[in-house]
Amino acid sequence: MRLFRSSELLGIARETMEFTLEACEATHPNEYMGFLRAEDASKLGLDRTGQVITDVLVIPGTESSPVSASVRSHMKPNDMRSVGSVHSHPNGVLQPSDADLATFGQGQVHIIVGAPYGWGDWKVFDNDGRQTTLEVLDIELPEEHFFDFTQAEIDAELAAEGRLDEADRDDRH
After folding, report:
1. pLDDT at 66
2. How many Å apart are CA 23 and CA 169, to the nearest integer?
3. Looking at residue 1, what DSSP letter applies?
4. What is the DSSP letter of 99?
5. Does residue 22 have an active-site annotation?
6. What are the extents of the domains in the chain?
7. Catalytically annotated residue among 18, 25, 31, 144
8. Gyration radius (Cα) of the chain, Å
C-alpha cells in the first residue's frame, strides 16, 4: 500500500460530471456549490498513476442565491481526497469572478458550470484562474456501501455491550 498518492489529476468520471450538471440545473436559479474529491486511479481499474475526480461533496449549511453561494468553512472536512471545487453561474458566464478567484486557493481545479447546464456549458480553471482542461473519463465507479454491515452484526455488537437482550435479538430475526 502506498502512503502517498500521485497528485496528477487524470480527469473526472463521466458519471460524476453528469451528477454535477444535473445538480447545477436542479439548483437554478440559485448557484450550486460543492467540493471535488478524487480517488486513486489504480482503485478504479486504470493502469495509470494519478487521481480521478469521483465525488462531489456538498457541505451542510451551504447558502445560495442567484448571485452567490457561500459555505460555512468550519463545516468543510479536512479531506485528503479534496482536489478542488465546483460551482454554477446561473447567468451562464463561464469566467471566474473576483470572489471566485479568492476561493480558488485550495485544490488543483475549479469547475464553473453555466446555464443551461449542458455538456458544453462548463470550464475548468487552476488556482490562479487560468483556464485549463479536464478529461472526462468513461470509467465504472465502484459502489460505495455507506452501511457496510448487517442487522445481525449490529445486534451482536449491542448484545456485547449489554444494550440488547436475547428476547430483543430473537424478535428481530
Report:
1. 64
2. 42
3. -
4. H
5. no
6. 9-142, 144-173
7. 31
8. 20
